[in-house]
Design a protein that fits this description.
8-stranded antiparallel beta sheet, globular, binds flavin-adenine dinucleotide, 5-stranded antiparallel beta sheet, Vanillyl-alcohol Oxidase, Chain A, domain 3, Uridine Diphospho-n-acetylenolpyruvylglucosamine Reductase, domain 3
């Protein structure tokens, strides 16, 4: 992905237990701070925006992984920040637990996933960041800072989605649920019927999403619901078919589109016609995700859920009018409102609309036109996917934008955790308005010995 080798790639090692690795992390941050370096932390490098690009220090926490504590009374687990979601899923499953929801892939690190507000689908579920009950940050001064709804609550609301700008997340405390089996059902349906049934689908099913095939009237509708039915038998042929044949064939068709873009409409129709009904039961962490081999460019926005029918109809008309040569389906998922300052679902029941273009094909004009539509409906961009918004525009979309900037500037006055992209995104050189709600207060950081940072 965007992960590039930089002059200083650091991997604090996991030698003698968890504390050692977090101690190593603290020492590295202290050294970087006193040397006036700039540090970016990479998870699994699966973001489409240049969040982790740097010519200075790039740090990976891939060796800081594992579960530190499982509390079965409060149903929480404390996870080291570099733990990949797929590892976490299997470890939780072995203990009879699960994350309440996941996105479409599970290779991200837990810290990387929450830092951009990664989400799945289901109007009863928030983004993965809403599963977080507490965080341990290594701040720019190399201090360990605990935050949770009770401790440093404002920093917590900022840190639940922070694009890695408040410090290095060392540990995450997550709310978990008992392991659950889901029934996965998927079939082809007309977009118009699906839009008519949208409300009912969202109410009747725990998880519902659609993929619309451009230039066709068809969607693939996907539903997941809890069940007591045993796990379906998986055949070797079924798995081979799903992972190798479907992805391989789709890659081949996509290559045809790349070489001959006018084929896009036909190939989208062919792909839509090949959607076969699926009925499968498995444990949740195995069903949320789908194998993805085909590489795409992606842009995704969260819009207020009530506009979804209108927006999808406008997008359909826009693709037709401009004859965009695109065959990769557009995704639409639903996410519950939350109270996290930089979450695209902040205080809004949201529909996330994701558009994709096969790698190597022209995407700029397509994304630009779709982005204009999404912005007309107050769309907020997914932080890990492509968008063109600047600080001024983002400030109008996020009520706590300046609160976030203020906390960032207080925790990291030397801009240790910024790269050029983030410096522009947060207008780090611009003025930070004072806290109008609490004009006499700075950012109060509660540590073991509670003290005021400003
Ligand atoms: C094929 C594909 C499918 C995807 N599917 C979905 C999906 O279904 N739903 C969805 O919402 N998104 C999806 N995404 C986007 C993806 O979930 C996010 O971009 C996510 O942030 C990537 O996690 P990562 O571990 O790769 O983090 P990275 O991309 O490496 O980093 C993301 C951010 O997290 C920060 N970070 C990482 N570790 C730490 C740490 N320890 N402390 C502080 N900051 C840290 C980084 O600095 C950066 O700002 C998809 C992306 C791809 C490529």
């Amino acid at each position: 992905m965007l992960f590039k080798d930089t002059p200083f790639s650091l991997h604090p090692s996991f030698h003698h237990g968890q504390n050692t690795s977090i101690d190593a992390l603290v020492q590295i941050i202290k050294a970087c701070s006193s040397d006036n370096r700039h540090v970016r932390v990479v998870g699994s490098g699966h973001s489409f925006t240049p969040l982790v690009q740097t010519n200075d220090v790039l740090m990976s926490l891939e060796h800081i992984q594992g579960i530190e504590e499982i509390d079965t009374e409060s149903n929480t687990v404390t996870v080291l920040a570099g733990t990949p979601l797929n590892t976490l899923g299997e470890v939780l499953y072995a203990r009879g637990l699960a994350q309440e929801n996941l996105g479409g892939i599970d290779v991200q690190s837990i810290a990387g996933a929450i830092s951009t507000g990664t989400h799945g689908t289901g109007i009863g579920f928030g983004t993965l960041s809403t599963q977080v009950d507490g965080l341990t940050l290594v701040t720019a001064t190399g201090e360990l800072l605990e935050c949770s709804p009770e401790r440093n609550p404002d920093i917590f609301k900022a840190a639940q989605v922070s694009l890695g700008t408040l410090g290095v997340i060392a540990k995450v405390k997550l709310r978990v649920v008992p392991a659950k089996r889901l029934h996965f059902k998927s079939y082809r349906e007309r977009l118009s019927d699906c839009l008519t049934n949208l409300e009912h689908y969202n109410q009747e099913h725990s998880h519902f999403e659609i993929f619309w095939f451009p230039h066709t009237p068809w969607v693939q509708a996907k539903f997941l619901n809890e069940t007591e039915v045993p796990v379906s038998k998986s055949s070797l042929w079924g798995n081979f078919n799903k992972i190798v044949l479907e992805n391989g064939l789709y890659w081949l068709l996509s290559e045809c589109c790349r070489l001959l873009p006018p084929l896009s409409g036909t190939i989208s129709k062919l792909s839509a016609m090949s959607i076969a009904p699926v009925n499968e039961v498995n444990y949740s962490h195995r069903l949320y995700v789908a194998p993805r081999v085909v590489r795409v460019q992606a842009m995704e926005y969260a819009i207020p859920a009530e506009h979804v029918q209108t927006v999808l109809s406008e997008i359909q008309a826009c693709i037709k009018q401009h004859r965009f040569q695109v065959h990769v389906p557009l995704g639409c998922r639903f996410v519950h409102a939350d109270d996290i300052w930089l979450s695209p679902a902040y205080q809004r029941e949201s529909a996330y609309i994701a558009v994709h273009m096969y790698r190597g094909m022209a995407y700029e004009s397509y994304f630009q036109h779709i982005e204009e539509i999404l912005l007309r409906y107050d769309g907020r961009p997914h932080w890990g996917k492509m968008h063109t918004l600047d600080a001024a525009r983002l400030a109008t979309l996020y009520p706590h934008w300046h609160d976030f900037r203020r906390i960032r500037a207080t925790l990291d006055p030397q801009d240790l955790f910024l790269n050029d992209y983030l410096r522009r995104l947060f207008d780090a050189d611009g003025p930070v308005p004072s806290d109008t709600a609490h004009p006499h207060m700075g950012v109060v950081v509660q540590n073991d010995e509670s003290h005021n940072l400003v």
